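Ticket #306: bound-state structure for phosphoric acid mono(formamide)ester.
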Amino acid sequence: MNEIRNLINITDLSTEEIEHLVTVADDIMAHPEAYQDMCAHKKLATLFFEPSTRTRLSFTAAMMDLGGNVLGFADANSSSATKGESVADTVTMAGCYADIIAMRHPKEGAPVVAARRTTVPIINAGDGGHFHPTQTLTDLLTIHRKKSRFSHLTIGLCGDLMFGRTVHSLIEAMSRYEDVHFILISPPELRLPDYMKEMMDQKGVLWEECEKLEDAIPKLDILYMTRVQKERFFNEADYIRLKDSYILTRKKLGPAKADMIIMHPLPRVNEIQVEVDDDPRACYFYQALCGKYIRMALILYLLGLK
Ligand code: CP
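RESOLUTION: The complex was predicted; output attached.
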């Protein structure tokens, strides 16, 4: 029997596998018609216990563009989780009806529990403040297409670096490459957790912390903005105090490099003003588009079809 491949954390993929997925996604973008029937008669279950727009819709579009079908739920309240069914049982059920599962859950570690019981590949589509590996693959495809390299980059990560699961997974992935320097821009309360800093130190990755976005902007090749996530706070007063810590405006982009790119996993709230959308360096909507293509590549890979 073939071993089931799951994607729980970006560390489940080797660098070669990540680069293979990026190459396949590139090819799908160039020749979508060559892939349109590759998942004929296959089904993807999307089990979303937490809200999503991009991740769920891009997984759905990815499977549809591969010629497959999609079933699932977008809200835990419409599943038997409301009756007390465990995640492990829900996943076992989904494996009876689908060939592959994409699951989002508010509890960190839920996909690990699910992976112990699954009979089909499971993709972690985000677990609490923990990991979001397919967002990282999306980010990597965007960086590849916009910067044509993963090495020799100064990356500013701005906003909620404590709870930002997309940030944690991106640091994990980009720390594999040569001469990548992170500038961690956050208020003291939302700094990157120590275990992430220790991981970078062990790998010899350069990083520095800074509180003012304006101080970092001129040095950056990539500015990765994040939302201060209301749903991760225990105390509303803290959220209100911190939510507008960083607001990117056209004026603040003045000293930025001409070829810097602005990324954001989205959704945004106030942290990037709408006036920035017209700047040629803004690529967060393109990033969301890349999400569909890299998820197509991932589905094919985990199903052993490419
Ligand atoms: N980037 C991202 O995960 O967006 P959604 O929460 O809308 O899926």
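RESOLUTION NOTES: Residues 134-288 form a domain with the Rossmann fold fold (CATH 3.40.50.1370).
TICKET STATUS: resolved
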